[in-house]
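#dry-run=false #mode=assembly
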Amino acid sequence: DAGVTQSPTHLIKTRGQQVTLRCSPKSGHDTVSWYQQALGQGPQFIFQYYEEEERQRGNFPDRFSGHQFPNYSSELNVNALLLGDSALYLCASSPTANEQFFGPGTRLTVL
Amino acid sequence: QKEVEQNSGPLSVPEGAIASLNCTYSDRGSQSFFWYRQYSGKSPELIMSIYSNGDKEDGRFTAQLNKASQYVSLLIRDSQPSDSATYLCAVKNTGGFKTIFGAGTRLFVKA
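#status=ok
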């Protein structure tokens, strides 16, 4: 049984560009959450998707947007990249509203 | 006041000792509490969840919750060098969808 998968593993972009990160949840999980983790910090909640709708959003600007597809997979889009967007982006899936399981993450570097 | 606070450490314990990790949270209505382990360069891994006051044991790990004091702890018995990692405390907020992480405590277990 495959766990949560994310692509790509690493990504290098320049300021002002746009990026799309992808996540496939664990089989049987219908809820996907996205987090940003800066070096030395805990993961920061970006938003959560359930039934293809954004259910809750954290304190992130509108440059961060997402989507969930009918097969429960999800995308995170970030527009107008800033240097400060460099971080590990984590996707977590869950079968209920509680326990979440993380994918391996996408390391984004903005130059 | 941070929503979830942890001592950043590092906490250093000898092999075989008990490691005690602590966490406080600010949202008195929080109902779900989690401990994640994160090895350097890897994504967080769920090791314990606790929802009611008291202790919950799973192998060498014991989670303790005191909602009146807004305090969660994790005890690791018979600590092993392989337990060396950053331990993240996470709290699901009153609304039920957003999970807030502490910055993590770095644990070193000396052989």
